[in-house]
Amino acid sequence: MERLAPALVVAGLLACAAGLLFERTWAVLPVGRFGESLLLMGLVALLAWPLVRLRDWRWADAMALAWGVLLAWLGGVAGLLGAGVLCAGACALGSLLPGAGRPLPALLCGLAMLATLAGVSLAWPIHHPWTWGPLLVGLAAWRWRALRTLAQMARTEWHEAVGTAPRAAAWTVALLGLASSACWPPTLQADDLAYHLGLPWQLTVNGRYAMDVRDQVWSLAPWASDVLHGIAQLLTGQEARGAVNAAWLLATAAGLWRIGAHLGLEGRARWGVLALFASLPLTAGLLGGMQTETAATAVTVGLVAWLLEPGPIRGRAWGVGLLVGLLFALKPLHGLAILPVLAWAGWRRRGQPLAVVPMAGAIGLALVVAAPSYLQSWWHTGNPVLPLFNHVFQSPWFQTAPFDDPRWHAGGGLALPWRITFDTSAYLEGWDGGAGFVLVALGGAWLLALVQARTRGLAIAASLVLLLPLLGIDYVRYMHPGMVLLLPVLVAVLQPALAPRLLACVLVAVCGLNLAYVANSNWLLHVGAPKRMLAAAGRDAPLFARYAPERSVARQWRSEGHAGEVLLMTRPAHAEYAGQGHSPAWYSPAWMAIADDANRDASGMHWQAVLRRHGIREVVLDTENGDQALRAALASMGAERAPLDGDAEWWRLPATDAPQ
């Protein structure tokens, strides 16, 4: 098989080229966005050049600083400060755990503990800057020596990593920074506006989270990711999504570096793994939103890196339990997908005596970290995973038919990697090529990894992490953690099979192809949001006006003391209104029924009663949508239209129409 290795690698590359040609994927290449990416990398290189030329900095160091400055300027200094305090407190707390003496395990374990602490207390009105701020700063002050040690370790590891291959490091930092540009725009994606923003803004505005599924049926779904976004946000009162996601990006890169070291990769090959990760279209695509896969990828990779550390697992058992629990607390699918990794880790250590007490403690910790959202959902609705499996639990808060999304059942069988690569739009809200080309271009390396004894175990485990989430639904986003975990295994096969120059050429070719199609991973990148954010000099308002006028209303509503409820008839974009926003959509069966009933009365009298009964003071309408009955009600009630940029109308009811 070793003799066939180069031929298999070449076969994968040729298959990828054939797919691009015969599947006509070249026809959907976002040429303009690709050009913008190259220009942005050139701009950062230009910013870094004075440090390299005049201060003798290394290119990787100078560009890392330049990307960080751009993140602070365009993504928001306040958000970066909030995320920084969160991560410092997490590292301080995580460093207390036995075995978590390195920066990445300390950070991830600390985040798991903070997410649990917040999760069990979400309903209590104690979540304020003056509670979380002193707590996190106090932890950092208490564990200052440990934090200083972790910082020195991180700095030393970075310095040594760049020193192994300075040129490869520079190009990889350029790609990681380019991916981080997706963190610049404000939160604009549909699921975030309808759901994920709800918890952070309720903590920020109300100091607590209302366990209420009437306006959002997903309100009690596993919330660990949103909780961590919420903690970072309430520290400064400004959204910290971009900065928190940037932290997850760096954590994933650190975990991949450690896995590469354990697999025996040389410096340039390890940087190649990071470059592949940074170039994957979904890496940047996910950074623009609040979906759980960004966090799950970091935790999955970090957990595997920790499991590969030499020495008995006993000292790390509790930390492993924390991270497994955190994956379940992010989403049930992530927790189930990690089980093959745990089985593989157990098999690797099958000759060691079983540590019963540490294992029992790990299982107990995993349950404690994972449980809060499931228990709350079960208590409030009768279904621990509402709205999933409601045909089993029969909760009155949602339909009892099996929950399913018919869009994501394209199938594929053994051809699934091919179809995901070249027919991506059938598996993702994106365009073809938006999943990247690793599965086909490096398909030969994947096959080799599965059969070679040196890589077989981890390759099988990573493949299962990739494929298991697709058993119930053919949705590419869910396989991203597994795809990233597979990358160091693929490069570990390529390194001995190819000469160093040829290996570099293969990695550059795959990274370049991925980079060309990054904008096809979601609509936000497809419209060039990072470029628009740069053109707006970091101001959110132009993007709100163009893509989410509901957010402009929310900003004004908060500035006026958020008096009264808000009805949004444009789309379900009510999450930011901290429990006082309502949208008639499938997320809220109750409001769907109310709106359907009220629309039957063309005179608008029924709508008048609804608006008064629910204390609605603000109404946002779609300019192109009729809503004639509601318009009649607004006219009869003396509503005034407020100025609002974008394709929406903002109507304000007089105070006299407040509920009695």
Automatic annotation (TrEMBL):
Name the source's superkingdom. Bacteria
Q: Which PROSITE patterns match?
A: PROKAR_LIPOPROTEIN
Keyword list (alphabetical) reads:
Membrane, Transmembrane, Transmembrane helix
Q: Where are the transmembrane segments?
A: 6-22, 34-52, 64-97, 104-124, 130-147, 271-290, 317-342, 354-375, 433-451, 458-478, 498-519
- Name of the protein in its database record: Uncharacterized protein
